[in-house]
Specification:
mainly alpha, 3 helices, elongated
Length: 50
């Protein structure tokens, strides 16, 4: 959204990220679950930094 379209609109003060499915993602790729969890952490870090 542009700054003009956001005027007068409230923004979320909190956002929840539900870390679900990382273990299944790894299992489908024949990887250890911990790799799935690590990839999930990397994805959240990338999201938060953007």
């Amino acid at each position: 959204m542009s700054d003009e379209s956001q005027r007068g609109q409230s923004r979320a003060r909190h956002v929840a990220i539900i870390m679900d499915g990382n273990g299944r993602w790894a299992k489908m790729r024949h990887l250890p679950r911990v790799i799935g969890h690590q990839r999930g952490v990397e994805a959240v870090r990338k999201l938060v930094r953007s």
